[in-house]
Amino acid sequence: MKTHAYKRILAVLLAMVMSVAVMSGAVFASPTAAGYVYISADANTLGAGYLYEPTKVPFYEGDSWAAVTIRYLGESNLTHWGDGESGFYMSYLRVTHDFTVNIPDVLLPHADAYTDSFVTGQMLGEFDIGFASGWMYTVNTVFPNGASDEYPEDGDVCRWQFTVAGLGGDLGGSGFGSEPLFPVADKDALTAAVAEINSAPNKAELLAKSGVQDAYDAAITALTDLGIAQELVDAALAALENALDEPTTVLADSDYTPKLNASLAYLVQSVPTPGFGTGGGEWTILSLARAGYAVPTGYYDGYLTVIGNLFDNLAETTNVGYRVNAVNGKREVKLDSNKSTENERLILALSSLGVDSTNFVTATATYDLVARLADYTWDIRQGINGPIFALIALNTNGYTIPTDSTVANQATEDNLIQYILDKEIKKGTDDAGGWALSGTTPDPDMTAMAIQALAPYNDNAHPLVAAAIDRAVGRLSDIQRPDGGYASWGTVNAESIAQTILALTAVGIDPVADPRFIKVDANGISNNPISALLTFAVAGGGFSHTLGSGQTEAGGAIAGAVNNMATDQATYALVAYDRFLDEKTALYDMADAFATTTRITAGTAAATIGTDATATVEVSIADNAGFRAFSLVIGYDTTALELTGVSWDSALPSGPQSTAGALPIVQYTKLSKGNFTGNGRLFTLTFTLKAGATAGEYPVTVSLNEAAVIPARPFHNDAAEPVPVSFAAGAVTLNAATEAQIIVGDISGDGEISQDDVILLQELILRGNLTQEEFARADLNHDGKVNLVDVALLKKMIKELGA
Fold this sequence. Notes:
Layout (H helix, E strand, L loop, with lengths): L7 H12 L13 E10 L7 E11 L4 H9 L4 E4 L7 E6 L4 E2 L16 E2 L4 E3 L8 E6 L17 E7 L24 H12 L3 H6 L3 H13 L5 H16 L4 E2 L5 H14 L11 H10 L7 H14 L8 E4 L6 E4 L6 H12 L7 E2 L4 E3 L7 H5 L4 H10 L18 H10 L21 H11 L8 H16 L8 E2 L2 E2 L1 H13 L12 E2 L4 E3 L1 H6 L29 H18 L9 H4 L3 E5 L2 E2 L7 E9 L6 E7 L5 E8 L8 E2 L6 E5 L10 E10 L7 E8 L20 E4 L1 E4 L21 H13 L4 H7 L9 H14 L2
Parallel strand pairs: 1-9, 10-18, 12-14, 19-28, 20-29
Antiparallel strand pairs: 1-2, 3-4, 4-7, 5-6, 8-9, 11-12, 13-14, 15-16, 17-18, 19-21, 21-26, 22-25, 22-27, 23-26, 24-25, 27-29
């Protein structure tokens, strides 16, 4: 920092301009506050921000602004002439954080650039940054007389600010009668709002409220930006007020991870050798496999051996057992004469392990679990459960119901769907919605399971299904309890909650975030299905059927004790939610268990050089593991190339094909049953050379459009995970320019991030209606909005880069 070898006459002159006034007389402070004011000290003209942040402080009868200032800053933190009663002039103020002088661009034309570094504990004051630099103060945007001569009133806003040029002209003042050097926004209201938060005894709680921290950070950014527009200051104030106005709620615990992990470990421990059956068999396998949990070596192989032995011990019969398909020689299995769910449950477990239920091979024979589902009479014999789990099982791996000439009633997906739709409570009336085993009152379990079965058909191609699901979701919200849970047959239980979680995640609804499923109880606690389910978790792992302490419930379950069925259902419900948050396929959409890696490439092409040059680039697929849809982004240099069209290859199955309204997003969806597993050319791109472009080679890239909803299976509207895809780039020979690259934060597009980009970003915010490229450069935190939070992040980035 510079030494101060300036003549004292300059100090006297500066003191006269800034705050000279002499007033005598003793002042005695009252012990009771006469009011409260807001006060701060900043060096925004140096790019240093606040040295002392806005604070709400009391003043007492007889206090001058000098007395308030000394008390607020602390006598040891400033050097001054005079005192609170007369002749006060603040010459130096202690630095509270390290900074290097960085004169804002708006001030640079009026002041020299400085590179002085200040460190914590040093003093900043008169003449440090030129002969006209020093501390000045405003009260309610006005530059008053000397601080010993002026007295606060309740609600005043006092801002001590460091001036560099114009003796306050850089602060909006008129030193020596000059006009302000540039427009300066009125920041008093925003200063007061921030001071209220800083001085609140529950500041941490306020900032923890949803949206308040971001709004607070944006407010600080606005306050410390010397040349910010008034509109942005007003917007920052409105955002902060709106965030603070949001009601404070106490959220129930929804941290499911520890209890899910404990429950998965409990399953492995309590079921060391899984076998066939509802308890200790298929549901345990499904939960562990879909969670990707690390099981002991041989755990799954042992289970498959048990299933293989079960099959090999079946008798050849037309009823329970197997029959031989005369065409393919497979043994078609039927595990129960009345319950098709026995086959269906096993299909779920095998699919979770990536085992084909139409082709289960043992040393003795090959077995097919799906074929016997062609018997519609068998499928519906046990009521709605049969069709529900038939559809769930079929959609685990895109299985197709075969035609069976031996059955009286051929099952199809359509008649299984229709069976469920026909069982809707009060179907066709204004009160329609939900399902039950019997009666006219929607039951949460059956309603949720029906949604799970219908979820793969929740699309425009099945409007009746989509409408029924919407009504059912509404019923689940209506019958939800204030504690976030559900009661079935008069009993509050874990399984009803679990099935609801499974249903909601299957149709893309977050049970924790969706306001329809957030209920506030009598204690003001905000509950959701996940938080409700966690209350049934038992210490050491597992879940109870009901809450309580030891009493025996109907059916033999002991309240508060681990229950096998509750544990299975609660565990795979939490697995489903975990997969939902990770944007993986739904619990019962097991395409990922069967998938390998698909490669999509953009081939190379060349064209005659010239402004009318054209070239075609083929986009092809290899090692295709099967997919339902894709949404791809074609990357190329838009400054020299024009992507003029997409021609679809005839090898693709019929279905919607589009460019998402505008290139370069290319989308395809297959509506017919089964995955597309072909290889070869998907589509061909046509490029033309823009006028003025020069000869050379451009890369053409193909990448996954992660922002789009890309279903891995048919008719899913959730954010399902696509079949894993690897991409490779090609090139089109047309010109020599390099591919344009978007750098987040580089608002100008000049390849560098600097203070110029901060100014441009603010201009974009004021202008609004950003182009796609401007938005991509400006949305620094990727929250889908461009606002002052992004300005704050950009400034932080520039500081870290040293730009």
